[in-house]
Amino acid sequence: MDGISTTHGNGEAGLPDSAGELEALLAATEQAAEALKGRAREEIDTALADLTTLVAELRDAADRLEERLTGIRASVGGEPAAPTEQDSMRRARLIAVNMAANGASRAETARYLSERLGIRDREALLDSVYESLGGQ
Known about the structure:
Largest sheet: none
Shape: elongated
Number of helices: 4
Structural class: mainly alpha
Helix content: over 70%
């Protein structure tokens, strides 16, 4: 941006002297803004990919833990405990976050939660999930 601003005798930067300099300053500013937006998009995409990976890893770990618990219960002759409503809602929230992070629409997520998990009270859950991800 050399030559865009002028310097007064006291060393202070002044305003550009011509319309051409103003246009150059505006173009440089717009170019810098676009570069910042591009970097922000890349960081968001990276964070979203990391979140998706973490959710998948958590889901796998939960499945392995559930299998181990089932095996332990079977070896001691205990009946598997029925999942509580809180457990169901935790699972539903995890699935909803994963679906939303992967770009699923709110309606698609609601349908999945209803059909696959039998979650009836979905609206508050979906509000929370989609608001936390920027209202997608």
